[in-house]
Fold:
Amino acid sequence: MKQLEGRRALITGSLRGIGFGIAQVFAREGAEIILHGLGDAESIAAAKTEILNSGAKRVDVFTHDLRDPKAVEQLVQEALNSGAVDILVNNAGIQHTAPTSEMPSEKWDEIIAINLSSAFHTMRAALPKMAERGFGRVINIASVHGLVASVSKAPYVAAKHGLVGLTKVVALEYANSGSRESGGVTVNAICPGWVETALIESQIQARADKFGGNRDQGIADLLSEKQPSKRLSAPTDIGEVALWLCSKSAHNVTGTSIPVDGGWTAQ
Ligand code: NAD
Structure:
């Protein structure tokens, strides 16, 4: 028996990167998947095919822009109109690095809207139905930057710290839903360190430039600063942690923020 048979998962920002890695793992375990993100028709079709080939029973795709709160609500409503949402992964996120005095204020607004506010809107719309059924899983993809700070990332660090706090509040509000048998309703955050995706590519390239364009040396330099394992995570590594949170036996794991950071926040 596959672990997620009969479950349907909405994963924001899942056309590529960590969200796509989570979708691959959930599909392998037989879930129905709602892919979501911004992309051209070709990349959307390719992502859908790959997730079907990974084992998903059904794949829907939505492209709502999470900068708009109304669109976020519509995304969840349309997902609920076409079936249940047993698992909600708030994963979509963007980054922009600059010292605070040089950070464009529109980047602040965008990062807060996508990385923080969209999770409030999706949880608000999806959780009541999970509570009615006695089973639900919300997994918020925060970051080590939800636990500690780095320079030049003011909106990102603020949004991720906010997401960790929001996770705790909502976890408390739903802690008593369902039962051990039904699996309960849990709300948790995963806090990755460096994961190999397009999001960190410009930061890798900036380091590679210091070594005559050598990408491997650029990555090693980036990791040596803060991630003691000196290994990047793969997107599916985050998917495996999310899968465990979806198990019934994790019914009492709620309100937590789980670092997957090679020791970054242990220092
Ligand atoms: P990515 O850039 O590869 O993917 C981001 C996804 O979000 C894409 O599918 C994109 O279409 C979607 N998205 C962006 N803006 C959107 C918008 N306005 N409306 C709808 N969708 C939008 O990034 P990733 O590295 O996979 O990051 C995923 C999450 O993981 C983010 O929340 C990020 O902060 C977090 N994270 C990443 C790392 C890392 O090292 N890559 C580390 C810690 C946390």
Residues 197-232 form one domain. The chain has two domains: 8-193+234-257, 197-232.
